[in-house]
Amino acid sequence: MKHCVITGSNRGVGLELVKAYLSRDTWHVHACCREPEKADALRELVTSNLGRITLHSLDVTNAVLVQKLGEALSGQPIDLLINNAGIMGGDRQTLGDIDYDAWAHTLAVNTIAPMRIAQTLLPGLRAASNAKIVTISSQLGALSYISTGKYAYNSSKAAVNKVMKTLALELKDEGITCVLFHPGWVQTDMGGPSADITPCESAQGIADTTDRLTIADTGGFFKWNGETHPW
């Protein structure tokens, strides 16, 4: 049985990623969210997939809880880490009105936390064969993508792109593949009801593409459907 850790797994793309990996018979999913006791959809999956899903309480910005996750998974090879947890950064992200405290929190969630979690779980990733680290980014973090506003969100995704690109270089010789995904414009609380694709479509595309990744792809930035995304 292979083991997958997914953060931000209680709704949207994260929840659909949990379902995608549970649909693959060879995977055990470690689903992380802030309040598992209130995550009804996840708890239903526990009931319907006995022995194949474990819930973990995790605020990705809380160093103590991240360390507890590492301790809970100590000695367990981790085949796949999906850094999915993320926030939009609040409403005040325009040139005339910026909430700098919210910006700092956005960087903590979207940029720093994926690195902290990857670093904490690195022993388990190293213990697996051909392990992979997937981080959900956004096209808004690509310097080639033209947009205005959303200073907190855009900068946090641009920064995590660089963080994971650097991590990919450092882990390449160990055979650990590290990539980023633009999940598409998804019909979630963040993307809104008018978005292009459903969370299920996004998650299935990400999972299918991740299955095909090899170390030759490390450091890559991909769209949810497997196409290469420009930086």
In words, what does this structure look like?
- 40% of the residues lie in helices and 17% in strands.
- The chain has 231 residues and is an alpha/beta fold.
- Helix 2 links the parallel strand 2 and strand 3.
- The chain is globular.
- It has 7 helices and 9 strands.
- The protein has a single domain, classed as Rossmann fold.
- The strands form 2 sheets. It has a 7-stranded parallel sheet with strand order 3-2-1-4-7-8-9, with helices on both faces.
- The chain has helices spanning 12-22, 40-48, 63-72, 100-120, 122-127, 151-171, 199-212; strands at residues 2-6, 27-33, 53-57, 80-83, 93-94, 97-98, 132-136, 177-182, 221-223.
- It comes from Cohaesibacter celericrescens.
Brief characterization of the structure:
The protein has a single domain, classed as 3-Layer(aba) Sandwich (Rossmann fold). It has 231 residues and is α/β, with parallel strands linked by helices. It holds the Pfam family adh_short.
Descriptive tags:
231 residues; 40% helix; Short chain dehydrogenase; alpha/beta; two-stranded antiparallel sheet; SDR_enzymes; NAD(P)-bd_dom_sf; 7-stranded parallel β-sheet
Show the helix and strand layout.
Layout: E1 2-6, H1 12-22, E2 27-33, H2 40-48, E3 53-57, H3 63-72, E4 80-83, E5 93-94, E6 97-98, H4 100-120, H5 122-127, E7 132-136, H6 151-171, E8 177-182, H7 199-212, E9 221-223
Parallel strand pairs: 1-2, 1-4, 2-3, 4-7, 7-8, 8-9
Antiparallel strand pairs: 5-6
Helix pairs in contact: 1-7, 4-6
